[in-house]
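User: Can you predict the 3D structure for this chain?
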Amino acid sequence: MTTIDISGLPEPLRGRILVAGAGVSGLGIAGMLHDLGLEVVVADDNETSRHRLIELIDVGVTSTVDARAQLDNYSLVVTSPGWRPDTPLLIDAAAHGLEVIGDVELAWRLDRAAVFGAPRTWLVVTGTNGKTTTTAMLAAMMKQGGHAAEAVGNIGVPVSAALTARDRVDVMVVELSSFQLHWAPTLVPDAGVVLNLAEDHIDWHGSFREYALAKTRVLAAPVAVIGADDGYLVDLTTELALDNLIGFTLGQPANRQLGVDNGQLVDNTFAANLVMGPAHGINPSGPAGVLDALAAAAIARSQGVSAEAIADALATFEVSGHRGQVVAVNNGVEFIDNSKATNPHAADSALAGKESVIWIVGGQLKGTDISDLVSAHASRLKAALVLGVDRAEIVTALDQHAPAASVHVTDLTDPVGAMEELVAQAFALATPGDSVLLAPAAASLDMYKGMGQRGDIFAEAVLTTIEGQKEE
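Assistant: Here is the predicted structure, written as structure tokens:
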């Protein structure tokens, strides 16, 4: 069982702590602080959320208006990661001289203060796309290398839960969002990787540059890794004068890089062109899977994991849901669920490496332009099956940049009905060698509860159709 020692707590954590937000993150923050015997008040304007929280934890609650009027009573503000920097309570707190930090920063400070035993090793993964897969791969490599490691953060297990777990986690492989990194000013992990950068969450950060700068905070780590094929990321790190970076690339690796040579994953950073295993057969398939594997391997090698352990981990690794899962292979046609491809950058990775694609696309474009994506993959698009609120914009891009592709549109807004219509169309069009790919390049909330439900409905429609064919 984890032993708790609060003797080394930093001074701000010894006072009265204001937690901003009574949702899931706020509940976790308040619960951990309460369990440490600290004085906590939670601010939220949703009365239902406040009542639900105090039923679970014996802490104080208040509205944001009252909290703003009583900032003298607090020593620190811990915000839920989704709260924007321009939230009035957070602006007032900072103007009042109070430090505002997030849940991950709180966990980091508690760990550094040895509140839960000796400080852990933190390996942090961020980027626009591929975070969850890379985090899971890295955790698998670390475990295969003999470490007591756990994938935590946005991958499912909260960082606070890992710190307080009955069985100690020595190595925390942490997937972090730009929101969490924005609110983590002193976090310096033992190793950090930025996979790639593309426009996302601009409304929250105010600009692409601010979003990107939040991501690059992990590169303050002693071991800092970047995607060397991402031009913007390379230019930004050069501008910031970040040196001693390790890169990963789909090409042959230069010095201080990991890459691909003659179909093999190769480490040219921690050894001289050390072969770590085949570049084919990695799950998920295609260039995105190879890049994720190289990024994970870069961090694992920095922690002393052998090439053999990395190869063994990749040989048995299975991608988590909606991130390139092959739902079925039927009559020479593969059906792939990449519902997690919620922006053009992610869809680009999903489409790459496929020769003949029946593409299920559409949803909420969130102001992004899909034209470059369509143009880049026009030659591989056998057909595009379009749904969602921004379908007209997508059809226009297809007409202009992929005129040879067959385009089919559903105007149904029922989530099941729309997907079933497009899946039926896919079966009618597909021939051996085709890939039916759900990679919407758009968010899902116009029709679905989330990208997970969208992927589940796609998979169910595919499998039901195959079963129906068997019965005929």
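The chain has a mean pLDDT of 93. The chain has three domains: 11-98, 116-316, 325-465.
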